[in-house]
């Protein structure tokens, strides 16, 4: 496959118009001023990422791709990794965050920095820069913080922020630590304005209170106007939170979410959601996305839009080689390719996402069907084999004395019952 190279759509005269068309503007400061700003000479903008986990996730990917679109339009990105704000964490709607150790946060800063760097360009006149807010908060004493920054904040307005008010009305309440988060984020914007003439911050719309904290602070201290954009929270058409499965985020780190799992996640996108996902998560131009929109309406059974979405995002996050491997694995597992020709690492990763079991070499296929959960009993396994509905490693099983040998790359076997029910066997 050849993934679409990151580029803005030339059919738009102004990147602001493309952001609007792609559904990336949920809330913002003055839209007319922003359109003029983004359509003019280069500006400096920033987005922050807190190390509250060892990896970014799909929600963060919205911000990373928005930053890339702005950079492609000629603007200068600052990727802020929150070495100080990550020690606190922004207020969650339900309960207080568990504070991680300074050593853990510092380690995660390094992981997130590397992930942010992969999506931006560090060459040319508008080269990206990575900054860490611990650099300017660590030397600041509590007294200086209160005198120079805290005096510009009014408690009544801070209490009105959505995240804060939700916590105040909960049983958990809110600590002063998390209550102060919006002041720290405001300080970040002020520091970046002073140091780099940064005049725009982007973030998720659920962070709007924190985004405007900096806008207000700069207005009070510097007597000038700066801007903020809040991207929409991505939800599925049924209202469920996007990117969550049984409480687990879809992470960008391949050690936490394999490329195969990433590919399958996008491949399973609902028809009602896939065009919006193509707009936000790919660099496909408007004309091509409108083509896929017609295909979804006329030939939804082909799932052409989902296949393109899965291929594009997997290549963006993990690279084209990984995308090719997982596409080949997906095709082969579902009967459209040679299992024996697959890359061992990709095949093993794919099978870990399926029902699977560890078994000794030479174990019977009958037992393997039960151990992997493809059938409920040995007698049911024998009936399935007798009816010709079982295959192993792409070969139909005709004898219930057949054994599992792990003949595929990586020392594994693939069990199939019927057309689409699969399981993996890790042979030892």
Map the helices and strands.
Layout: H1 15-21, E1 27-28, H2 31-38, E2 44-49, H3 58-72, E3 76-81, H4 102-117, E4 129-132, H5 134-137, H6 142-148, H7 155-160, H8 162-168, H9 176-179, H10 181-196, E5 198-204, H11 208-222, E6 227-231, E7 244-245, E8 248-249, H12 259-267, H13 271-281, H14 286-298, H15 304-318, H16 320-333, H17 344-352, E9 356-359, H18 365-371, H19 378-386, E10 390-392, E11 395-396, E12 412-417, E13 421-427
Parallel strand pairs: 2-3, 2-5, 3-4, 5-6, 9-13
Antiparallel strand pairs: 1-6, 7-8, 10-11, 10-12, 12-13
Helix pairs in contact: 10-11, 12-15, 12-16, 13-14, 13-15, 15-16, 18-19
State the distance separating the first and last CA atoms: 34 Å
Q: Mind summarizing the main beta sheet?
A: 6 strands, mixed
Mean pLDDT value: 93
Share of residues in strands = 5-15%
Radius of gyration: 25 Å
The CATH topology of the largest domain turns out to be: Rossmann fold
Q: How would the global form be characterised?
A: elongated
Give me the count of strands. 13
Count of runs of 4 or more consecutive helical residues: 19
As a percent range, the share of helical residues equals 40-55%
Secondary structure category: alpha/beta
Q: Based on the structure given, which CATH architecture of the largest domain is correct?
A: 3-Layer(aba) Sandwich
| Strand order in space, largest sheet | 1-6-5-2-3-4
Question: What's the level 1 CATH class of the largest domain?
Answer: Alpha Beta
Count of domain modules: 3
Structure write-up:
The structure is a single chain. The protein has 428 residues and is an alpha/beta fold. A six-stranded mixed beta sheet has the order 1-6-5-2-3-4, sandwiched between helices. It has a five-stranded mixed beta sheet with strand order 9-13-12-10-11, with helices on both faces. A two-stranded antiparallel ribbon has the order 7-8. The longest helix is centred in the N-terminal third of the chain and has 16 residues. It contains 19 helices and 13 strands. Helix 12 runs antiparallel to helix 15. It folds into three domains: 219 residues, HUPs (Rossmann fold, 3-Layer(aba) Sandwich); 118 residues, Tyrosyl-Transfer RNA Synthetase (Orthogonal Bundle), CATH 1.10.240.10; 75 residues, Roll (Structural Genomics Hypothetical 15.5 Kd Protein In mrcA-pckA Intergenic Region, Chain A). The model has no long low-confidence stretch (mean pLDDT 93).
